[in-house]
UniProtKB/TrEMBL annotation:
PROSITE patterns: SSB. Residues 120-140 have a biased composition (Low complexity). This is Single-stranded DNA-binding protein. The keyword Transferase does not apply. GO terms for molecular function: single-stranded DNA binding. It comes from the Bacteria.
Length: 151
């Protein structure tokens, strides 16, 4: 195979509200963290251990506005996109790096009754992507974080 692949699929919970940044050319960017957790029983101590990984999500334009309107801290969401590392200079002149997930598609997974704004789960593509039919959210999501996959 001669090609490469940069694809990320995450299901996690928002760690904060969507932060919007607007630009002069009418474009905008939304940023928010999501947490994914892995739980297992340690063989040494026989105790349950949970490891949480934080991911910085970036959505653009109309998709960002939709996320800002319907997502709140704690909501469960499916994110699909690609990994991107940005290089930037901080206030002290030091070069810094940030690794982000550039979101191409997302699905709201928090059930309608659990959302503060009582909105239906939706699947949304960025404006540049081909439109796809809406898919409903999975109904068998385990609330306690039982991470046994069904396959």
């Amino acid at each position: 195979m001669s090609g490469t692949l940069n694809k990320v699929m995450l299901i996690g919970n928002l760690g904060d509200e969507v932060k919007m940044h607007y630009f002069d050319d009418k474009n905008c960017v939304g940023r928010f963290p999501i947490a994914t957790s892995e739980t297992y029983v340690s063989k040494q101590t026989n105790e349950r251990v949970t490891n949480t990984e934080w991911h910085n999500i970036v959505v653009r334009n109309k998709a960002a506005e939709i996320c800002e309107k319907y997502l709140t801290k704690g909501d469960k969401v499916y994110i699909e996109g690609r990994i991107k590392t940005r290089k930037w200079t901080d206030d002290k002149g030091m070069e810094r790096y940030s690794t982000e997930i550039q979101c191409d598609e997302f699905t709201f997974l928090t059930p309608k009754g659990d959302q503060q704004q009582s909105q239906q789960p939706k699947k949304t593509n960025t404006p540049n992507a081909n439109p796809q039919p809406q898919q409903s959210a999975p109904t068998n999501v385990e609330p306690d974080g039982d991470d046994d996959l069904p396959f």
